[in-house]
Amino acid sequence: MLILGIESATARVACAIGSHEGVLAQFEATRGRRHAETLVPAIEFVCRQAQVELDEIGVVAVDVGPGLFTGLRVGLATAKAMAYALRVPMIGIVSLDLLAFPVRFTSRLVAAVIDARRGEVFWALYRQVPGGVQRVSPFGVDRPDDVVAELAARAEDVLVVGDGALRHREVFAELDRVEFAEPWLSYPSAAPLVQLAHARALREDWVHHGSLEPVYLRPPDAAINWQTRDGTDRRGSRR
pTM here? Predict the structure, then answer.
């Protein structure tokens, strides 16, 4: 079964095609943030490189967030349109899961941290389990110092991964027992997206394109800006 993976929930635009043989072709670009202009030509490129026709795709997998609103919407809209046109099911993978999976061999507690802008980060905690990682906390959106306080209270060795950790490195460096993942692991990638989706596809753990929903964790920035201008805070009460 061939799987097309689409990743655009953060600053990275990526796609890959894979199967039981592994990833056959992939594309990644992290500069410019031209998600809408880049994604469709990138999909065409990986199809050519893998020598695959679009009608051979059996499942479309996509990062469902949390992440940057515009990029997330571009990826979801593109993935849903392709799944609808190809009449194939979809698999959604959470961006924080995609960050944690490539560092699954560490014995440390893994903190996956995505820059959410506005001085906040999306985050979750993971532990190594046979064959991958397991999420051991709810998804959160908080200030970096609040995340550091939670990690300090656990008093464990921690591996921090993600662009949120890079942007707020000085805050996370306050932890006594912290290690930072390599910078090239700081964004969700299409390769682990395909790998994780393939395992779920074998179990037929997929959904119809109309059922797949994004994971936002907070309103989009445009809605927050409108509320602020209108004198309403993020919970909807008057200030």
Answer: 0.89
